[in-house]
C-alpha cells in the first residue's frame, strides 16, 4: 500500500500560532489556494480512497482535492482528528503564559512529557494512531494494491503516525514536522517494510 499523507491548508489560527486542536477553524484564503495547488499536483493519480479528519479545515482541503483532482469522495473518520490540547486548546503561546504561567514554564522545559489538564494525552493519541493503522489494513483488502490511499489530517496526528511507522522515542524527540498543505508519501514494499518516498514536500506552493 502507498499512503499519500496531506496536512490541511493554512488557517488564521496557524498564522496566529494557536494550538488549534479539535476547534473547528476554517481554511483562510491562503489555505484554500494551497489546497488548490496541492489538488492540481494530485491530478492524474488514481486513489483507492480519500480519508479525512471531520474537522472543517481538513474537510475543506479534502473536498478541494476531490473536486480538482477527481479523487474519490472523502470518507471522514474521527480517528484522524487532531490532538486535543485540553485547557490550552485555542491559545497562543502568549495567552498560555498569561493564563497558566506555571504550566507554560513546565512545557518550555519538557514539552513532550508535561501533562496538560483535559488534554487527550500521548498514550491515547498513539492508541488512536494504531487503531487507524489497523483500519488501513482492513481497507487494503478492499482495494487494488497498486492504488494509493490519500489521507488528509493534522500536524500532530500525522507526526504521531510517522513515529508509529518509523519508531522513535516520542518522549524525547518529534523529528517529523509537516507544513500546511504538504505532501508525504509512504510505500509498504513486498517484505512488509515501509519506505519514505517523499516527506513534507511543498514544491507545489513554492514560488
Strand order of the largest sheet: 3-2-4-1-5-6
Largest sheet: 6 strands, mixed
Task: Name the CATH class of the largest domain.
Answer: Alpha Beta
- Average pLDDT reading: 93
**In angstroms, what separates the terminal alpha carbons?**
32 Å
Approximate shape: globular
CATH topology of the largest domain: Rossmann fold
Radius of gyration, taken over Cα atoms and rounded to an integer in Å: 17 Å
**Domain count:** 2
Give the strand tally.
6
Count of DSSP-assigned helices: 7
Beta-strand proportion: 5-15%
Report the order of strands and helices.
EHHEHEHHHEHEE
What is the structural class? alpha/beta
**From the coordinates shown, what is the CATH architecture of the largest domain?**
3-Layer(aba) Sandwich
| Helix fraction by DSSP (H/I, runs of at least 4) | 25-40%
Quaternary structure of the protein: single chain
| Uncertain residue segments | none
CATH superfamily of the largest domain: Phosphoglycerate mutase-like
Amino acid at each position: 500500500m502507498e499512503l499519500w499523507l496531506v496536512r490541511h491548508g493554512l488557517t488564521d489560527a496557524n498564522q496566529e500560532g494557536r494550538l488549534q486542536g479539535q476547534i473547528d477553524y476554517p481554511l483562510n484564503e491562503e489555505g484554500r489556494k494551497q489546497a488548490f495547488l496541492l489538488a492540481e499536483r494530485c491530478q492524474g493519480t488514481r486513489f483507492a480512497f480519500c480519508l479525512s479528519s471531520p474537522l472543517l479545515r481538513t474537510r475543506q482541503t479534502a473536498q478541494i482535492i476531490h473536486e480538482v483532482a477527481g479523487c474519490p469522495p472523502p470518507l471522514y473518520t474521527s480517528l484522524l482528528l487532531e490532538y486535543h490540547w485540553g485547557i490550552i486548546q485555542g491559545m497562543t503561546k502568549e495567552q498560555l503564559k498569561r493564563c497558566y504561567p506555571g504550566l507554560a514554564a513546565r512545557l518550555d522545559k519538557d514539552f513532550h512529557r508535561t501533562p496538560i489538564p483535559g488534554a487527550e494525552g500521548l498514550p491515547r493519541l498513539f492508541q488512536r494512531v494504531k487503531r487507524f493503522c489497523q483500519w488501513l489494513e482492513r481497507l487494503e483488502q478492499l482495494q487494488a494494491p497498486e492504488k494509493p490511499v490519500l489521507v488528509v489530517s493534522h500536524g500532530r496526528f500525522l507526526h504521531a503516525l510517522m513515529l508509529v511507522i518509523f519508531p522513535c522515542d516520542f518522549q524525547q524527540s518529534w523529528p517529523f514536522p509537516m507544513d500546511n498543505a504538504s505532501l508525504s508519501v509512504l510505500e509498504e514494499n513486498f517484505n512488509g517494510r515501509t519506505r519514505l518516498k517523499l516527506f513534507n514536500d511543498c514544491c507545489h506552493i513554492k514560488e
